[in-house]
Amino acid sequence: MTHLSVKIGTLDLRNPVMTASGTFGFGVEMASIIDLNRLGAVVVKSTSREMRLGNPTPRITETPSGLLNAIGLQNGGIDNYISEKAPFLRHFNVPIIVNLVGYSVDDYVYLAQRITAAGAADALEINISCPNVKHGCDFSVDPLLTFELIDALRKATPLPLITKLSPNVTSILPIARAAIEAGTDGLALINTLLGTAIDARKRRFKLANVTGGLSGPAIKPVALRMVWQAHQAFPDIPIVGMGGITNGIDAVEFLLAGATAVAVGTATFVNPAASLGVLDGLEAYMDEYGIDDVRELIGAVKAIDD
Ligand SMILES: Cc1cc2nc3c(=O)[nH]c(=O)nc-3n(C[C@H](O)[C@H](O)[C@H](O)COP(=O)(O)O)c2cc1C
């Protein structure tokens, strides 16, 4: 029997494939299209203290092998999540990971305490970067701010914490170290890469916000490199790898680089069932190569001359 289950802190996942925040809504629309019970976990859209309408449109544009988005963290706010979205998701037999976003440490602590008290999540993913928001959070570029935030959250909730890092830094290692020293149970990487797109014919930016976050296959090499670097530096910390995963082989590459689990984002816009396709592809790879336990793949990549 193939062993697919993995652990992030105290969170047990039946398999390593989850959804990437912001690309699966709150699962409500997706539940009529795919079987949520097959996923390792559902990771929901970033949730903030108040409702957010997001940025003006256009806020999404296609790029070669990718997507630029400047949604601006649109969501219904914590009250709506707890009263409507969480009860819906709890009808399914799948762990819920709530992605939190705030402007201050107090915001994040408030959100974590509300969700913990309501039993509205099995783990928290902490979005410490929001590149597409004016006056957004800058925790992700400063190890001290990252430490302060994760330390406060560690004291505020017993739920497993997964700190989601931004690739928009010179090195992610000092930020990762700060999150680990503050008590994070895992790391998620990567969030989107800051970019822009210009329409030469109109001589205008393509996004109302000017800049947006790049995702999709275009960023996979960067994401793989960062997952590998983080795993080399912190081999005991579980990593949720993401960035351009569209099929099972992509997922295997992330596991080999050192990820314990993977998340599927932009691919879901092309095929709403992409996450389940990734899971099927991972299982097919394991069958083909006689891998009994998915954990054998974690960090198992070798040098070309090894
Ligand atoms: C339209 C869109 C919205 C996103 N919204 C969020 C969000 O609310 N919070 C977050 O942490 N990441 C958000 N992300 C980033 C993804 O979760 C993921 O980190 C990134 O897109 C890389 O994975 P991918 O290439 O598979 O999409 C968003 C990405 C996209 C494309």
Please supply descriptive tags for the structure shown above:
8 helices; four-stranded antiparallel β-sheet; binds flavin mononucleotide; globular; 306 residues; TIM Barrel; alpha/beta; 19% strand; 16 strands
Describe the protein's architecture and organization.
With 306 residues, the protein is an alpha/beta fold. The protein has one domain: TIM Barrel (Alpha-Beta Barrel). The chain contains 8 helices and 16 strands. The strands form 4 sheets. Strands 3-16-15-10-9-8-7-4 form an 8-stranded parallel beta sheet. Strands 5-6-14-11 form a 4-stranded antiparallel beta sheet, with no helix packed on it. Helix 5 packs parallel to helix 6. It is globular. The relative contact order is 0.17.
What would you say about this model in short?
By secondary structure, the protein is an alpha/beta fold. Helices cover 31% and strands 19% of the residues.
The major sheet is characterized as: 8 strands, parallel
| End-to-end gap | 30 Å
**Multimer state:** single chain
Bound molecules: flavin mononucleotide
CATH architecture identity: Alpha-Beta Barrel
**Percent strand:** 15-25%
Count the E strands.
16
Give the helices and strands, then pairings.
Elements: E1 6-8, E2 11-13, E3 17-19, E4 42-43, E5 60-63, E6 66-69, H1 77-89, E7 96-100, H2 105-118, E8 123-127, H3 143-156, E9 161-164, H4 173-181, E10 186-189, E11 193-196, E12 198-199, E13 204-205, E14 211-215, H5 220-233, E15 239-241, H6 248-257, E16 261-264, H7 267-270, H8 274-289
Parallel strand pairs: 3-16, 4-7, 7-8, 8-9, 9-10, 10-15, 15-16
Antiparallel strand pairs: 1-2, 5-6, 6-14, 11-14, 12-13
Helix pairs in contact: 2-3, 3-4, 5-6, 6-8
Bound molecules: flavin mononucleotide (FMN).
Flavin mononucleotide is lined by residues 20-23, 45-46, 67, 69, 71, 73, 99, 127, 164, 191-192, 215-216, 219, 242-245, 264-267.
